[in-house]
Design brief:
20% strand, 9-stranded mixed beta sheet, 272 residues, Rossmann fold, P-loop_NTPase, 9 strands, AAA family ATPase, alpha/beta
């Protein structure tokens, strides 16, 4: 039990915003704050994993990335391209040729970013990894990424649509609690309903699969625009934001250029 004055000390790092490369979201009052849980939902191949990875690599903060949806080769190639700016095709060729020593020495400096590639992690697996992180570094990660939330094996058996939704909501509540206990920002990636799976039109809050948007502090959806030259623009809509602007329709968004060579995501205003 805390008084208001005592709560100043009890809050710890809660509310501290993490460094973010997404200036457009910041203009919409969207921040990734420690002690809070957020969700990014998008169709397959729209870029939600890359949005998460660019966030993880942007700031000099401790990160634990549960990469159930992508293997080590994929994440290593993407991360190396983002950090160096080198073409991901060249990075992959060097990785396959075992000619990676130059990159390995540079990547070793990013010791604070750790990945787990278990394709079906349980709640116990995630908690064990976080305890191990604390044991090694003496602190919990400031950012915990879960890619995707549906890959996590929850405690509720999934037999039908109702139990699927209940299980996802239960997982969301557990992740929200994990954010408070660890003082990290917990960001989970998720899917959208079928009519929005092509990722070509704005996705509303109601388009989040499983109707689990009640728990997160922030919910973002992503759709993309492909021009006649094959260039890709990612549009990120803040459809829920407890402490700032939100448009549940998804019609208000900030836009970013996706560089398919370097895997970097840049505010469109910075490229004009």
């Amino acid at each position: 039990m805390y008084s208001l004055a005592q709560s100043v000390l009890a809050k710890g790092a809660a509310g501290e915003p993490l460094p973010s490369p997404y200036k457009g979201l910041a203009r919409h009052e969207v921040e990734f704050r420690r002690g809070e849980f957020s969700l990014i939902a998008a169709g397959p191949g729209t870029g939600k994993s890359l949005v998460a990875l660019n966030l993880a690599l942007h700031g000099n903060v401790p990160v634990m990335y549960f990469s159930a949806d992508s293997n080590a080769s994929t994440q290593l190639s993407r991360a190396t391209a983002i950090i160096t700016g080198d073409d991901i095709r060249d990075v992959k060729l060097r990785l396959l040729a075992d000619d990676f020593d130059e990159y390995t020495a540079m990547l070793a400096k990013r010791w604070w970013i750790r990945f787990d590639y278990n394709a079906r992690p349980t709640i116990a697996d995630i908690e064990l990894n976080l305890r191990a992180y604390f044991e090694v570094f003496g602190l919990f990660p400031h950012l915990i990424l879960v890619d995707n939330i549906t890959n996590v094996v929850g405690e509720t058996p999934v037999g039908d649509a109702e139990s699927f939704t209940f299980g996802l909501e239960s997982l969301s509540e557990w992740m929200s609690d994990m954010a408070r206990v660890t003082g990290a920002h917990v960001l989970a990636l998720h899917h959208v309903t079928g009519e929005h799976s092509d990722g070509l039109t704005p996705i509303p809050l109601s388009g989040v699969k499983g109707k689990i948007a009640r728990v997160p502090n922030v919910v973002l959806t992503i759709h993309k625009e492909v021009d006649e030259m094959g260039g890709v623009i990612l549009h990120i809509s803040d459809v829920k934001n407890r402490e700032g602007f939100a448009d549940p329709s998804g019609g208000t968004f900030s836009s970013y250029v996706f560089n398919s060579s370097s895997m970097r995501i840049t505010d469109i205003d910075d490229t004009l």
